[in-house]
Amino acid sequence: MPEITVAVNGVLGRMGDTVLNAVDQEPGIKPVGGADINAGNAKTVKTLTGAELPLASDLASLFEVAKPDVVVDFTNAEGGKSAMTTCIEHGVRCVSGSTGITPDEIAALSDRASAAGVGVISASNFALGCVVLIHLARIASEYFDYADLIESHHEMKIDAPSGTALSIVQAMLEGKGEDFDQNIVETELLKGTRGGSTGGINVHSARMPGRVARHEVVFGALGQTLTLLHDSISRDSFMPGVMLAVRRVVNENSMIVGLDNVLGLTK
Fold it and tell me: Does the model's pTM come out above 0.90?
């Protein structure tokens, strides 16, 4: 089987750098370039093994010198939408971990991918353990009336709550089939103490150095609680899921949303 060639969008960022070097070490997958809005005058990017690859400020420019089988994108909502659009237009398959893209925008991109026959995988989290947490939270929600969600990330994360937290909330509400019950305080002595609220689930976000990503779901019932907790200790935790998605997307001709659908997890 020929090697799968991969370019990384957002390659100069922390996640992009991790992806590039993971691809460089993955059997059967080969890095062939990178794109980053901060490339400036730089024309190449190096892997830890010393491989020197073409670098461009955007994917369209990169495709003039390198045509990968797959682009892996870890940027932001605007970057992710642009990456998936460009890939679809150029017939390049795409795996995107960019969050903040609205459901309507995802639906529009899905329509474009199907029309073009280009495989795309978009997921809010590629850590296999976190995907299992989402699956278990969906199952558990049927049996509890109260729930809180606490997520914490590194201090440089620009959005709150995390895209993964929103995916967990969506799964919980799907599993519950209705809103959760919720305590409404009579007096909030510090505004925002109860966090954000959706479907009766209070969502709390923390941002601090030392964290990569943590998601904790706490269900409450009479005389008991159930806690589901997943920690990503390093960005390496996302790489097995990314590699799995890269190998899957080359055989797809439409969009898959969520790594749970790649893994075939069902309630």
Answer: no
